[in-house]
Design brief:
- This protein is 31% helix and 17% strand.
- The chain is α+β, with helices and mostly antiparallel strands and 665 residues long.
- A 7-stranded antiparallel sheet has the order 3-24-23-19-18-11-10. Strands 9-6-5-13-12-4-25 form a 7-stranded antiparallel sheet, covered by helices on one side. Strands 20-21-22 form a 3-stranded mixed sheet.
- α2 packs antiparallel against α3, α3 runs parallel beside α6 and α14 packs across α17.
- It is globular and about 65 Å long.
Amino acid sequence: MKNPRASRFRRLQSVILLSASALFLSAFGGNAELKACLQGTTTGGVSVGSGLPGDPSIPEKSSGYKLGNKVVNSTSYMAVTANPRATQAGCEVLSAGGTAADAAVAIQMVLGLVEPQSSGLGGGAFALYYNANSKQVFSYDGRETAPAAATENYLRHISASNQTTPLPNLGSAFASIRASGRSIGTPGAVKMLELLHQDHGQKSWGTLFDPAIQLATNGFGISGRMADAIAGAKNDLLRDPEAAAYFLNADSSPKALGTLIKNPEYAQTLGSIAKGGANAFYTGPIAQSIVDKIKVTSSGGANPVAITPGLTELSDLANYRAIKREPVCTTYRNYWVCGMAPPSSGGIAVAQSLGILENFDLSAGQYLPTLVNSDGGKPSIAAVHLISESQRLAYADRNKYVADTDFVPLPGNGVSSMVAKDYLKARAGLISTTKSMGTALPGVFPTAPASGSSATEGKGTTHMSIVDKYGNALVMTTTIESGMGSFRFTRGFLLNNQLTDFSPDPSDSSGLIANRIAPLKRPRSSMAPTLVFSKNSEGGRGDFVMATGSPGGATIIQFVVKTLVSALDWKLDAQQATSMVNFGAANSVTTGVGGEHPSIDVSNSGLNDPLLVGLRSLGHTVSFAAQSSGVSTIIRAPSATTGAQTLWGGADPRREGLALGDNPF
């Protein structure tokens, strides 16, 4: 006797497969535009979300490094993000004639759903935008701000009369502050995206929310990185009943890889912003929910614990403003490199590292990588030594001098002094080719007051790089600070813990710390969205060449410098430069070499790898811990077959990223 339930299942399965096959065939039926935004495979191409073999959105375990990523080329537009569904949403906006600014809005709304541990409505962002018509580069600051009621001890003490660390007491000051309401800054991403869209958008604001609304309503399978983030944060999520209800099962176990998850509250929130603009987020019921969550004084669950509330008010949200700032643009060999100005330290630190390296010929044989393939290659001992030394010098300046310049000015004449060629040449003279300096001293500027130093920063961040069919380019790094932010969840999204990027101490033995907290101040960041241009015949900024950036907290600077050197000096393609071994140093004796890369031999404590052994012989303390970068790169270069200018994209194999454009092959 036939099983009717099994028969129904087989009929349903047949319908699904036929529908998927029809989608596949229509995509390759000869219409060039239908071939856009597909993932190229050995057997053809597949649409993200189709369920067909090769579909990059099918949830799979987070591996740490995915072998075999190939460079993607596209004729006229491209999006690269850390999640396939987000890349698809952006690519489809570009395919429909949207600008890079339009695509960024759609991408961020999807990322906040499918990668909530890294970015979202409750966080902030920095973006650079190149307008191909005007040839101008614009810079947008959507960094979170401290509340107006914050004091210099806001992160250290419960109050002036109770000078203990904010609750809950989790065994370390950072963990306690992060889980309290004091870590949460006024979110800036939504306001920044609205400003960016007003300046450079072409599609209707409201329609850009549709992909995320549909995905939140219909559901998606939890990816490997999201599943890992939920499992790692289980105990912290349990303190917030809304977070626990969304991320955990009824028995408090973490929702696992592949679980279908829906977020109707997020869909409703997006609908409100789509209709009412950013004002719907910064005033009214959504704003009230954010403030209420920041002011929570006790955790949920059977054993509640006391929590120190934040002092954010509705007025803090209503008064928030995204800011246009002057980008940090400097020359590097035959290129112009543009990055983000303070309150991010990324633009200055990348420019300083490159300015120091400019005094050395990195194209010379001893600096070139070996074992070059689609996974990048293996950097030489000489290159890792030299580049990490340049970064030590840059981080020394970052830690001492860089903060929100609306509150604390940079030394000398500001950015121009810190990236001046003669200053960086003198800094390069401090590098020995035979021994690591270990820890560098900051540079000396005539007008710099005595001041302290700080180096804190979390890693819950993501990045997107976009080029549209009009030639405009956007790079945007967006964050809720640490993974899962503050673990506070409201109306379908997580709130940031961005204020822990401030130094909790206002001063040290050397003086006041530039990155100390103050009312309405923006915490220092290392986010480094970066655009590269050729030099024109007059030495000015010429054509667009490259867009890149990465998550990674303070290590972002190292990831971006590695990618730029790989592309500009070693002439690797977008995927090779992105996949290349991660390496570099902050201002400490430790030099990191990413042990997740297949070219690095971590066996026998690294003693079998000539690179690690060679660095140790130069005095480096070497860490080969895995490094979770998330570089997204687009390079504009001639096609080897036609000679025409073509876009080449690479997504970091250490995350779930994907590059898509109008040609998957």
